[in-house]
Write a structure and sequence with these properties.
Layout: E1 4-6, H1 10-22, E2 27-30, E3 46-49, E4 52-55, H2 56-59, E5 62-64, H3 70-77, H4 81-92
Parallel strand pairs: 1-2
Antiparallel strand pairs: 2-5, 3-4
Helix pairs in contact: 1-3
This protein binds FE2/S2 (inorganic) cluster.
């Protein structure tokens, strides 16, 4: 019996899952890449798995990849994109308050 494991960027894991499903092969995703503090305190690793909210650092990090809501996870990762861009711009212009 074959088994696929994936770990890496969320889009890569999503498409690995779709490919494994196409070949009817079980796939496990390790969600280490979405963790920040790894203590269950920051909430960055919150993910929907099988319709249930999980925290990768507490409940995982390994999950049945076919149960992960990849689109929701991707949307969560993009939630602060504009603020991150503004912060990077301020840093590059050296107008960041932390300098
Ligand atoms: S990494 Fe912060 S809550 Fe899981």
């Amino acid at each position: 019996m074959s088994q696929v494991f994936c770990v890496g960027p969320v889009p890569m894991m999503k498409f690995s899952t779709l490919t494994a499903q196409k070949y009817d092969t079980p796939i496990t995703a390790s969600l280490n890449p979405i963790m920040v503090d790894g203590t269950g305190m920051c909430g960055c690793c919150r993910v929907e798995v099988g319709g249930v909210t999980k925290f990768a650092c507490v409940d995982g990090p390994d999950f049945d990849a076919t149960l992960v809501d990849w689109d929701d996870l991707r949307a969560r990762q993009a939630a602060y994109r504009s603020e991150e861009g503004a912060s990077l711009k301020a840093y590059e212009e050296k107008s960041c308050a932390c300098h």
